[in-house]
Each structure stands twice: as C-alpha cells, then as structure tokens.
C-alpha cells in the first residue's frame, strides 16, 4: 500500500514562524542582560537611601580629672602570689613507680638426703614466720656420724688420761734417780778426800761407775717425760679434731630441718615428699614482707630539688654519692573505683646503683616502705574546681599490703633551700612568663602637652545631630562616672616577667579554695611573695609595660558585704 506524501507548510507560514522566534529570543536576551540587573541595582540603591547612613559614634571627650584618668586605665584582675613556706607545705614531686620486693631469699639444702617431712604451709603463696619448719630431711646417717665422732672424742680423752698418768709416774722416777745420783756423788767425793792408801783405785772407779749409772737413769726418765709430753700434744690435737668433726656432724643434724629465716610469703617451692635432694638444690624462695621497695627513677631536674634540701657547705666531700633522706608518700588507686586511693609512708634512701639509665636518661633511686601493712585511705572527691581529699586511717577495707607489681605514685615531700612562690595557674602564661602588676601612681600624671591644649575638641559641624543621637549613651556614661569611685582602684603598670620556672602543681584545699596553683622558682628574684600577677586576659602588652588599674582589697570586701546584704534582703522579702 502506498504511503501518502506529507504536505509541506506554505511559505508564508514558515516566514511568520521564523520572525516570531527571533523576536522571542531577542526579548529574552534584553530581559536577562539589561532589565533584571538594572532592577537589582536600583533596588539596592533604594535600600541604601531608605536605610540611611550610620555615623560612627565618636569617642567621648576625655576627662582630665583624677577620676577620669583613673577610669581611662585598663582594668585588670590580679591575684597575690604567696610563698610556699607560708603554707608550711612541702614541695611535692610526683613520680610513677612499681613495687618490688625489699629482699628475696632462696633457701637451698645444705645436706643431701631424702625428704622425710614437708609442712602443709610449704606451698607457693603461703605466709610463714621466722623459725617455721618447712622441710625435714632424713637425719639417720648424720645422727650416726655424730655418735661415732662422740665415741672417738671419748677415746681420745681416755688416751690423754693415760698419758697424764704415765707422766706422773716418770716424774716420780726422775725424783728417785736424782736422789740416787746425789748419794753416788757423795760416795765418790768421800773416797777422793780420804788419805792415800785408805781407798784403792778400783773402789774409786766402782763408785764413779755407780754415779754414771744413776745419771743415766735420770736422763732416761727425763727423755721419756719429754716424749710423753709430745704424745700428749698429739692426742690433744686429735681430740680437738674429733670435737670439730662432732660439731660439724651436729650441725648437719640441725641442717636436716629447713626453717624459714625471715617473715614472708613463699614465692615458689620445689620439694616433694620422699624425694631425694642433693646438697645445694634450691627448694623454697621466700619474699620478705616486713618492708617493700618502690622502683622508680628521677629526672635530673627532680634530682636537683632533692639535693637542694642540704646546703652545699654542709655536704662532705665523700657524700657526693649519697642522697638526703627524704620522706615520701606512696599512693595506690584501685582500678575501676575512681577516688579510692590508699597511702603508705615511705622514705627516699639512696641511689639504686650508680649512674643514669642509658635508655631513659633518668637516675634510679631506692624508696623504702618500712611498714607496708599500715596504710591510710584517701577519699578523693572530684569537682569542677579541683579535688577535695580527706584522709582517714583504715585497717580493714582495701588492699592488705603493698605487693610486687603494683603501679603506684610516689610523692616526694621536699623542703628545698631555694625560696619558691605559689602562682595561680591563670597567671602563668605560655613561655613561662607572668604579668606582674606594679603599683605606680605616676601613670595618672598628665603630659605637658595635654595641659596646654584642649583635650579631644569636637567639631561644631553636625554636632547637634550627633548629640541628639548619643544623648542616651552620654546619660549612661554619666551614670557610670557617678558610680565609679577612684578610691576603690589603684593605678600601676603591668610588667612582663620571663625568668619563671614552674616546678610542680599544687592543690591546697582550704587556703586556696580548690584552685589550681603552680609552685615556681623565680630565678632572678624579680618577684617575691606578696607581688600581684595579672590573671585576666589583656593580650600582648606593647613594650615592657602598660598602664592599668586594679581594684583595692577594701573595695572588694565592701562590695561583697553589699551583695550579701542585698541577697539577705531579697530572701527576707
């Protein structure tokens, strides 16, 4: 089927459609490029004229009076710094530490043998007292050895008795031999003194022979006596040896009973009943619980304050490796129970070794707690202003004692020789700086030019309109001037102090009203106790100082009384 051909529009209709499309495009272009922008600009100009112009408020005329000059100064809020010695509080340096044993004793067997007895308390974790029997080794062999040596000692003693008796007998024989020798000597002398012919030579020789026999008998007995004395010395040495061996045997018998040498807790044990142990085998390790140590280290700046407690002139030359004994408080906080803290009294004794730790560059020290069973409970109540701490003695609740592995906080109670000041935290600025307020009435003096020329003249042109516009502001300013009393203020300068070195934070509950304060050292001593530091923000002062004013303490007290009276009046109504 043939499709019919589409009819084409007439030329007149196509020409009319093209003209209309061009007109619509031109109109849209004129609308968006001319009419709408012009209308927006006209609306903005009309809005500006409708709102009018705002004249900036002129600075009020400066008042050259004393009250005006005082009011023109920048008001600042200050706090008076105090001396640390005024509170009778020591400087507290806080360091973290870990509890370690004061002493740990490893007990080893001194004799070999079979374990015959083991105490029920000889187990890891059990508490023992000094002298408690832990393990007993079979003493049979050692008791028999002691008996044998006892008999040997008795035998040597009897032998000494025999020697003593022989020596007595020989001494008697020597006395008899001496008497016989004297008789023979008199006989020889008598024969020699007789006249010739009365005694033959044979009789004289016979008498001499008898004398020699008596002398020989005496010398033989004396030699035998010396020999007996030597034998007695040897027997005495043998008896002493037997006595020493018997003492060793008796000591070995005692060593079969292994007792606790200290009060403490058994850390580990390796002894089983009926097992054989050799000499020197460790079987029990006991930790001393009468004292504990806290392993901690001090930075060099902290060590400086510890050493500053003693004057350099009082230190002896050989005390360069000793630290002054410093009281301390060991504090432990129970995990999961915020505010539950327990405290123990401790003391810093000495260095733990010598030199610095190469890893942390700190100095290890020894802190000893003499009585780890006696502690105090510190209830800490945290608030938005600070912390309130109340300490009470507690002996039942909480940890029973300090044990190894506890992470604790150590507070060193230091009383340094260098004077320190207490500065509020708001007064300490970045860079260890403070702004000190120094009273100086000269900041109120007028310069000579100000006295000769009028102060801030106001142009007459347009003055009426501005006066009408600012009438309410001037009335408020006049009311403020009427309420402003220059006697309630003190003029001075705010001076920048740089040589301030904070040592540690301080929180004194009652005196300082739970505020945070810093204990600082003023190295150049440019500030002392009683000075005023600025605690309100004033920006960066240009130059070394700026003029300012502070409110006197009398006016502060009077205003507080007025506020209290008004509050009481409102409460009564």
UniProtKB/TrEMBL annotation:
InterPro entries: MdtA-like_BSH, MFP_Efflux_Pump. Residues 103-282 form the Multidrug resistance protein MdtA-like barrel-sandwich hybrid domain. Residues 460-486 have a biased composition (Basic and acidic residues). Pfam families: BSH_RND. Keywords: Membrane, Transmembrane, Transmembrane helix. The chain crosses the membrane at residues 30-51. The keyword Transmembrane applies. Residues 448-489 are annotated as: Disordered. This is Multidrug resistance protein MdtN. The gene is mdtN_1.
